[in-house]
Amino acid sequence: MNQQHLDLLGTDEWRQTLEDRVLPFAFGPLGADALGADVLEVGPGPGMTTDLLRTRLPQLTSIELDPDLAAALRTRLAGSNVDVIEGDGTAMPFDDGRFTGVVMFTMLHHVPTIELLLNSRARPLRWRRVDLDSTNIDEAALGWPWTPIDVPQEEFEPAAERKFVYDTTYWSQSNSGHTFGDHLTAAERRAVIEYLKTL
To answer: Domain 1-106 belongs to what topology?
Structure first.
């Protein structure tokens, strides 16, 4: 996570964006309840999404790669319904089928699929969702159906759909970083995706 991204994730403005736009967009009409009783959050960072999710879910496990962020979040949420684990999202220490749902935020807002999350060199500069039903996913790539676009977000038409455009040239929305999957072969990336489907 770059420093600009980390700085943004701790702001009141980001919390409001999560509350007003990101969570409703991600969950759609089903709400967080559709995730079930034992949910995994991958990559909580400083824990802004964790704070919002833990009030909506019975049990949340958050796995964070950065040891300092994981330790701070674990200390802050001690005694709550959140279990914070320091670990790698590509090598998780959990049994198959343990979780009823999995969420990833502050990574996937600028990367449309897990496949692209695991391959930084293939990520689009600008893209938009092509199917706004939050229950429809690209089963092969494990993420949203998407298409690349060639204009900045503020020039996209119709203007009402600009909120569904992701422009990674904007401050803090870069799709750089999160390169932990770049060393994997295509077969290894596919194995990670297939494993995530079992959770």
So the answer is: Rossmann fold (3.40.50)
